[in-house]
Amino acid sequence: MSKNQLFKKNPDLQIIQNILEAFGLDNLEDTRLFTKEHMHDIETVTKLNELQDKLKEYYLPCKVKKYLNDLNEKKSITLLRQFIKIYDYKCIGMEKSIQGKKTMTYRLLYSKDNYIQSPVEKKQKEYIISFE
Question: Structurally, how many domains does the chain consist of?
Fold first, then answer.
């Protein structure tokens, strides 16, 4: 793995495990849905604030202020996405209607799986151009 523009050292699985637990997830393969309301209920932001000293060890100094100061649910999801990306995972958001209210739901996904691609591949059409 190469260095990137966010981290001075690549996040190890231990710090990622700590971040996942703050979201109420067991591991990277945990595909349970979660919402910002769920994050609020389990105090994700508070738990990530407690991890702040450890998280600072990974971020480049110029990125610490942008991503770790004034944490909220939205910034927490960004932080999660940044850390799991190193291991080819994504956190995707989908809008769902829960009890008549539109809510963003999030879940982890291995990013080598193309979840947008249609299962039915469109056949390529062939054209013949003739200049007679």
Answer: 1
Six-digit token string for 17? 């495990």
Residue 41 amino acid letter: D
Portion of the chain with pLDDT greater than 90, in percent: 74
Contacts of 9 (CB under 8 A, 6+ apart): 57, 58
* DSSP symbols for 91-109: EEEEEEEETTEEEEEEEEE
Specify if 1 maps to a domain: no
- Please check whether residue 38 lies inside any domain of the structure: yes
Give residue 47's domain range: 13-110
Determine if the pTM surpasses 0.70.
yes
Q: Is residue 120 part of a domain?
A: no
Cα–Cα distances (Å) from 21 to 34, 51, 54, 98, in that order, read 12, 11, 15, 24
* β-bridge mates for residue 94, sequence order: 105
Alpha-carbon distance 128 to 61, whole Å?
Answer: 58
86: its two tokens: 């190193």
Rounded Cα–Cα distance for residues 113 and 89 (Å): 9
Q: Tokens standing for 131?
A: 């200049």
